[in-house]
Amino acid sequence: GMPAVPPPPLAPRRQSRQIMVGSVPVGGGAPVSVQSMTTTLTADVNATLQQIAELTASGCQIVRVAVPSQDDVEALPAIAKKSQIPVIADIHFQPKYVFAAIDAGCAAVRVNPGNIRQFDDKVKEIAAAASAAGIPIRIGVNAGSLDKRLLAKYGKATAEALVESALWECSLFEEHGFRDIKISVKHNDPVVMVRAYRQLAEQCDYPLHLGVTEAGPAFQGTIKSAVAFGALLAEGIGDTIRVSLSAPPVEEIKVGNAILESLGLRERGLEIVSCPSCGRAQVDVYTLAEQVTAALDGLPVPLRVAVMGCVVNGPGEAREADLGWPPATARGRSSSRARSSRPSRSRRSWKPWSRRRSGLPTRWAPN
Ligand code: SF4
């Protein structure tokens, strides 16, 4: 078949100023980048660099490491030097760690205004140090650690509260002429999160780092992130994304890349166009789709493969794909051989996401 030509994007990208996170441009029309965060002890340099290597191999473009202690600070120079991708130091409470991370050669520093009250008098120094090093700051607001003053004002972490917190923190840096900033306003509820980013997008021109925080285990987190990022990216909002999953960070990268591919914001890698199957199926679509995915996943070329259960839509989809089942020659054929290879009804390969949620019986009992 012909290689699939991606359709035009759903909306023009929001005009944001561009920052550089190491070698990766963020904002200003740069491709939306995908990032994750290591789960190793940052102080364990080898383990952290090992995880960064795995993340890099899976398509991660920027990585963040937590810096909660002096041991972690001391590991930063080696990690920043040996990582293949830019390293952002994630710092919550200690201004002195911000300076240390900048000295260590980190590509950016993330600070959280909710935890930053004690930073107020330090902002000038942080701005000067980041400026001198030529690195940006991420202002990372999180619903779970919202500034107490704003929590009191709004009653809870509303979209308005998240945005006010972020813009207030930006203003502290702007007072010192520092605008090398990107912002995140994360919430665990995609509805609040989308509303917050929409407001933020209107009120500033900083590049935006999208995230649904504490999104949950892989399935729920994938859905929440895909829905929220999808809504925003479809409007042109978002310059870099981080999917948060209670799962290994490589999974976050796979999901992040798949979200961008789905919206045509990144060249598609392997795309399986497979049908849900139905009573017409002449092959076991579930198994075939899984086998095809397993066999081709990770190929460094864009490939669209159609796996269709029968000839109703099969030849049409296969024509649009690089590879397809049934092959075009199968068009209109319903041979006894094909019939005899109909899938067993046991659907052995299907692993349901959730069993018995409703409490209703899952077995049908003939009467
Ligand atoms: Fe059913 Fe055929 Fe459509 Fe698959 S392609 S869902 S088997 S009609």
Structural class: alpha/beta
Share of helix among residues?
25-40%
The overall pLDDT, averaged over residues, is 87
Shape: globular
Question: Major sheet, described briefly?
Answer: 8 strands, parallel
SS field, number of helical segments: 12
DSSP summary, beta strand count:
13
Report the bound ligands by name, code or SMILES: iron/sulfur cluster
Give the DSSP E fraction (strand runs of 2 or more residues): 5-15%
Order of helices and strands: EEEHEHEHEHEHHEHEHEHEHEHEH
Poorly predicted runs of 5 or more residues: 329-341, 344-356
Biggest β-sheet: strands ordered side by side in the sheet = 8-7-6-5-4-3-10-9
What is the CA-atom radius of gyration, in angstroms? Answer: 24 Å
Beginning-to-end CA distance, first to last residue: 49 Å
